[in-house]
């Protein structure tokens, strides 16, 4: 049965590819520029002198070439978040996972192969914390002769939610990581690069979206924040969620949305209120004992030809620690059986032949370098393994069979079981460092259970898997019970996602068929946790044919320093 559903999916993709697909070319010039916000001047690494960066606009099934010119002072890479890149991990982008950095005064051209993705994705740097300012939207319109599964909107607007830091963020982060201290909180949040009117600086700008009465608009919302889930609302208007992570979902209405770092969400809004100016607003959401800074950033939803002011007292958003609002919103997300989505192809219980149970934790490790100001620095781990980046990329080492770069022995179970979400008194959970990969065969039906722990203040974790969209089949509070919890799984209409939020006192279960060979990064999209090692690598071995194997290594890949 699993093979039949896989074949139906192949037919869906083949049908898309028979449509007329275009090839697009973009030039990204990446250099440092100065931006003045909060009455301070900060130096940011940006693309084409803009913050956020340029939008890539394509149709489903197109191919995109992006020539990235590094005019900065240090190396970086760019990742095409949510693009599956079939058999093409070489251009996925994470530093030291699928490539080495693009060095200063050099360039590198990415080939981005779109397949079944539809709606909104995004691109961002994937080196250190560089993505804070090197990011932008990918808008994927319906293919030729394809329609939306809802009436075509009258207009659309991309909305990128961001974290803003005063000063040179790279220097700030490098110092924090070297000293073993936690990275700083953001100084503000931004909407499309604007800080709004809540931070007290008279020269700060506010984002404005102009709309016409009785028109309907598609909002393409991206959470590019570094470490913060975000609530978002437009006052006195109803938001209708229609897509998540470039896959359509069953339409539902809400006064607000909750979106995790890395996620994208398509939302319809009708301009059906009295003409005026209405605040749009965003604030963080957190269930951690160490919460982000609770700041509200504003924008304006403005009806055409209206002149007047907005009332700040009218802003209503769930409180930052309102976990009920968080869980209630997430629980309403369901897949939808529309022709514009690939056929729902959830691995059945009898299909599953690879099960992985992963605990997520924040830990500490001895800080050993000369810049340490503490004896124990922060670390983060999956199954008590804190990931270490190698000196060359894992993909190259795997493809060329270079030994000593990584190990194929990531543990499929945690080393010990305890009350993960309860009382940790007396629990001493040792952490090791290493570059250890999860290895599966092509065609395997995979189930991964992700379990939060209360280690290191607990809290949610947005986990992103490169190269795949997966089905979110289960979730619950407390500790996962392998005997009873699978009976609660949704195997009928689970949403298809690339980034899933694991609640701070609970677990989630995901399933997918391993049908995209390559080396694919899996990590927490809270940047501080990735910096501390909350990541691993999924290696999907080649199948038995050329069509089920990794494409040949391009000759243009950036050279690693030690090769």
From TrEMBL:
Note accompanying the cofactor annotation: Binds 4 Cu cations per monomer.
Primary site of residence? secreted
- Please name the GO terms that the record assigns under molecular function: copper ion binding; hydroquinone:oxygen oxidoreductase activity; oxidoreductase activity
Highest taxon, organism lineage? Eukaryota
The cofactors required by this protein are:
Cu cation
Q: Could you name the Gene Ontology cellular component terms for this entry?
A: apoplast
EC numbers, comma separated: 1.10.3.2
Q: What residue stretch is flagged as signal peptide? A: 1-21
Report the record's Gene Ontology biological process terms. lignin catabolic process
Q: What class of enzyme is it?
A: oxidoreductase
Q: Name one Pfam family in it.
A: Cu-oxidase_3
Plastocyanin-like domain boundaries: 31-143, 157-304, 432-543
Kindly state which keywords UniProt assigns to this record, in alphabetical order. Apoplast, Copper, Glycoprotein, Lignin degradation, Metal-binding, Oxidoreductase, Repeat, Secreted, Signal
Q: Which reaction does it catalyse?
A: 4 hydroquinone + O2 = 4 benzosemiquinone + 2 H2O
Subcellular localization, per the record?
A: Secreted, Extracellular space, Apoplast
PROSITE patterns per the record?
MULTICOPPER_OXIDASE1, MULTICOPPER_OXIDASE2
Q: Which family does it belong to?
A: Belongs to the multicopper oxidase family.
What is this protein's function? Lignin degradation and detoxification of lignin-derived products.
Protein name in the entry = Laccase
Q: Which organism is it from?
A: Gossypium hirsutum (Upland cotton)
């Amino acid at each position: 049965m699993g093979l039949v559903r896989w074949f139906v999916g192949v037919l869906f993709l083949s049908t898309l590819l028979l449509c007329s697909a275009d090839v697009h070319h973009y030039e990204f010039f990446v250099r440092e520029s100065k931006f003045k916000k909060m009455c301070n001047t900060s130096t940011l690494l940006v693309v084409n002198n803009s913050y956020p960066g340029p939008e890539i606009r394509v149709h489903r099934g197109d191919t995109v070439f992006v020539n990235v010119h590094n005019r900065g002072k240090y190396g970086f890479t760019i990742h095409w978040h949510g693009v599956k890149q079939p058999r093409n991990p070489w251009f996925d982008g994470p530093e030291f996972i699928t490539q080495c950095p693009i060095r200063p005064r050099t360039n590198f051209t990415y080939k981005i192969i779109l397949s079944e993705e539809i709606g909104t994705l995004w691109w961002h740097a994937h080196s250190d914390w560089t993505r804070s300012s090197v990011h932008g939207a990918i808008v994927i319109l319906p293919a030729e002769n394809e329609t939306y599964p809802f009436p075509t909107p009258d207009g659309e607007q991309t909305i990128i939610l961001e974290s803003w830091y005063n000063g040179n963020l790279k220097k700030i982060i490098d110092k924090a990581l070297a000293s073993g201290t936690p990275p700083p909180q953001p100084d503000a949040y931004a909407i499309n690069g604007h800080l709004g009117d809540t931070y007290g600086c008279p020269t700060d700008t506010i984002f404005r979206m102009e709309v016409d009465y009785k028109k309907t608009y598609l909002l393409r919302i991206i959470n590019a924040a570094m470490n913060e889930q975000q609530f978002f609302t437009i006052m006195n208007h109803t938001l209708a969620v229609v897509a998540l992570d470039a896959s359509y979902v069953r339409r539902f209405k809400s006064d607000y949305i909750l979106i995790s770092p890395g996620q994208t969400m398509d939302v319809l809004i009708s301009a059906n209120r009295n003409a005026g100016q209405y605040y749009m607003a965003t604030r963080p959401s957190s269930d951690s004992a160490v919460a982000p800074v609770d700041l509200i950033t504003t924008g304006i939803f403005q009806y055409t030809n209206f002149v007047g002011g907005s009332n700040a007292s009218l802003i209503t958003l769930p409180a930052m620690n309102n976990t009920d609002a968080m869980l209630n919103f997430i629980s309403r997300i369901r897949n939808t059986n529309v022709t514009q989505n690939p056929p729902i192809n959830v691995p059945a219980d009898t299909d599953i032949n690879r099960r992985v149970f992963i605990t997520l934790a924040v830990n500490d490790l001895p800080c050993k370098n000369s810049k340490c100001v503490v004896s124990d620095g922060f670390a983060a781990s999956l199954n008590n393994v804190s990931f270490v980046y190698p000196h060359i990329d894992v993909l190259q080492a795997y493809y060329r069979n270079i030994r000593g770069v990584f190990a194929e022995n990531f543990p499929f179970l945690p080393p010990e079981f305890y009350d993960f979400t309860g009382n940790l008194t007396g629990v001493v959970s040792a952490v090791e460092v290493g570059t250890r990969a999860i290895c599966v065969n092509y065609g395997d039906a995979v189930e991964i259970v992700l379990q939060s722990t209360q280690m290191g203040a607990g809290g949610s974790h947005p986990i992103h898997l490169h190269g795949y969209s997966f089905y979110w089949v289960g979730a619950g509070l407390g500790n996962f019970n392998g005997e009873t919890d699978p009976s609660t799984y949704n195997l009928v209409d689970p949403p298809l996602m690339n980034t899933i939020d694991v609640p701070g006192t609970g677990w989630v279960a995901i399933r997918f068929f391993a049908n995209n060979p390559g080396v694919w990064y899996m990590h927490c999209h809270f940047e501080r946790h990735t910096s501390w090692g909350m990541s691993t690598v999924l290696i999907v071995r080649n199948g038995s044919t050329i069509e089920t194997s990794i494409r040949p290594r391009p000759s243009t890949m950036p050279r690693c320093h030690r090769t």
